[in-house]
Amino acid sequence: MGVTRLSWRDGFVSSFNGNLTAVFSLLFDNLVNILTIQFFLSQTDNPPPIEDIISHLFLGSLSGVIIGNIFIFFYTRWLNKSSKNIYMRTCVPFGIDAPTVFFMALSLQRMYNDKIARNFTPSDALETAWGEGTIIVMIIGLVKLSLALLYLVVDFPSKIDPKIFGGCLAGIGIALLGMNNLIDIFAEPLSGLVSLFVFLMVTLPDPETLGWRNKLPHFAWSVIVGVPVYYILAALPVRSGAAIPTFSYGLPKLTYFGHFDWQSELNSYIVAAISFACLVFAGGYSVVQVALDDEDSKPTPTSEEDEHLIGDLAVNLPPSESLTRADAADRNRRSVIRTILFADAGATIITSLCGGLIQTTPYIGHSTYRKLGAGHDYSWMFAGTLIVLTLSGTMTYISQALPATVLKPVFVLIALQIAEFAFGISAAHTVSPEVANTINKYIPALTIALMPSIAQLLNIHVQPDDSGAEMITCLSQGFVITSILWGQVTLSIINGRLRDTVLIFLLLSLLTFFGIIHSFTGKVYYDVWNQDSRIALFACLGYAICAVMALVFVPARSRRNRV
């Protein structure tokens, strides 16, 4: 019996909600990644004009993502009609690699400061530093292309123990993505904590339990709740860290590849660039492998259909070689993986040629989008949305209107997903699938419980005048209690324990009120509103609002359905 396929239009209509959710999720994820570059440049002593930054920022960086998603749409449609015994209902999307964004943003900031120190004007310093950044991205793309070519000859990725790779990936996700952005969330903890935990409330539970909460993309709820909180706080006459932005507009440009300052020490960034290229290549290999495992295959043919199953592969084999069904399936899978890895390398190279400072990657969100019902149409819908928003300049206004503390929770969730993916690789190779699924379910709670302890480690070495010192200190105080309660509240959210979730948030608010956690001075007190740091007060209010939001967003379950 063959696979029943819907027509193009019927398939589009039936999976419209899933497609829309995937488009908005990818859009916000990519926007947050790109805004990291803007944030780092704005933290320099003599920052360039905002209109110069935003004119450089979007079109070049998103060009590779746009082309990659258009390619993957047509490739998936061809693959589903081919004789490779692989049917992918949902595309493997192309997105921006978040760890590389931080490396590129920090590199750009250092190169820009170097130019300013040598008496460049801010505009010239930005132009030259940006051009040097595109050369780094080109190196990353060429390294991935070289690895893809090597993969044609030797199946070396399969020789690497996936458990070791999982540990490397988890470390990057937890420290570079999760912890780094959690610190920034504490720059304005009221809207930051509310946005973070509302996002987790609509993301971590089983999608089938969310009901009406699934009607909008998950991150939309975080924006709907967090943005009003931020702007109300910004309008009040209090020292909160929130501010109403001054909007600027910059026409998108595509002219920044090749600007180079021969006095720049570009070689100091090459080793890190090669490392990030290898990381994304290995990560892309694992993402596509997992995607192929998740997808439904075509039914196994009868013996009369063997020739069709083998397809074009059998034509090119020597007559003496016997090709079994397993051999054909393995070759077909490797062919798909190689094609997507080549496409990723090409998309990164195109990004650099168009003046972008990001590295593309096969995105880890495939399984999530598939569960939400997304088909393969969302890839061209996403690419089309990016084209319209960037060419019209609308993206520049969106980027300035959305506060960083509301956007940063996306990175924290990505960190939790990376940890789940990484540790899940190890579990999948050591325990039964049922046990592995149970372990994966609770990895986000274990991961978020690690972060206050990492903050304590940072607090030991941070200096009082260092950037982010106040946020790190407040986040680290009472780190053992914070770790236990954050892990427990995340676990309660996953299991739909509404009462426990509300009580834990109220307890966090109470402990913050008295300085037992998040105290800037490390002392307990009874007047949180009268302390030198405003963070504890707004964190206290943030936890209280989270308790109220839990009544709305946590999908309560009956006791017999709880784990």
How would you summarize what this structure contains?
By secondary structure, the chain is an all-alpha fold. The chain has helices at residues 8-14, 16-42, 50-57, 59-81, 98-117, 122-153, 162-185, 189-201, 218-235, 270-294, 306-310, 312-315, 325-353, 366-371, 378-392, 394-401, 404-407, 409-428, 433-461, 469-476, 479-495, 498-513, 535-553; strands at residues 94-96, 360-362.
| DSSP E strands, number | 2
Q: Runs with pLDDT <50, length 5+?
A: 1-14, 296-317, 558-563
Q: Which value, in Å, is the CA radius of gyration?
A: 24 Å
Helical residue percent? 55-70%
Q: Could you characterize the architecture of this molecule?
A:
With 563 residues, this protein is mainly alpha-helical. It has 23 helices and two strands. A two-stranded antiparallel sheet has the order 1-2. The protein starts with 7 loop residues before the first helix and ends in a 10-residue tail after the last helix. Residues 1-14, 296-317 and 558-563 have low confidence and may be disordered.
